[in-house]
Amino acid sequence: MTDSPPNLPPRSEPSALVRVLGLSRYMIIVAVLATLVAATTLLVYGAAETVGVVASLFDPAAGAPKGAKGLILTFIELTDLFLLATVLYVIAIGLFELFVDDRVALPHWLEIHDLNDLKEKLIGVIIVVMAVVFLGQVVTWDGERQLLGYGAGIALVIVALTYFLSQKPKKGN
Questions:
Q1: Domain extents for the chain?
Q2: What's the CA gap between 132 and 173, in Å, rounded?
Q3: 147-166 vs 115-139: helix axis angle to the nearest 10?
Q4: CA 101, CA 106: separation in Å to the nearest integer?
Q5: pTM for the whole structure
Q6: Cβ distance 88 to 32 under 8 Å?
């Protein structure tokens, strides 16, 4: 034990409860692994579906999407699947960085140092997912359904999320 600086009480060893609470953060590894498995599953499924769609284009009996619109819609849906996998991956990486170890070699844009970083990354991907979902509705629009309300609802949520992101937390809170 080292000597304490003047005017400060000597530092004592942390209690067992403090040590247990400190180590309890590693329980998040369960969530990290489960979320990583979910993201990987969606990615593999999406890749298999993509290969199946492309293969079906060369086999008339396989039931390829009908026309360019059908093919576009199929690929938009697959893109949505990949974006959802990305959301899960970002959550897994973010939780790992926040609770376990922040020394993971990642691109700068994916580094997460606090909950605000994770929040920003997730909201950004959620906005893209919502836009892709709306694009899928536009591509399949039959001229009958009212897309204005649907699009306005998505736009309102995007505006609210953007406003939420613009609010910087105050220091000391």
A1: 18-166
A2: 36
A3: 170
A4: 12
A5: 0.71
A6: no
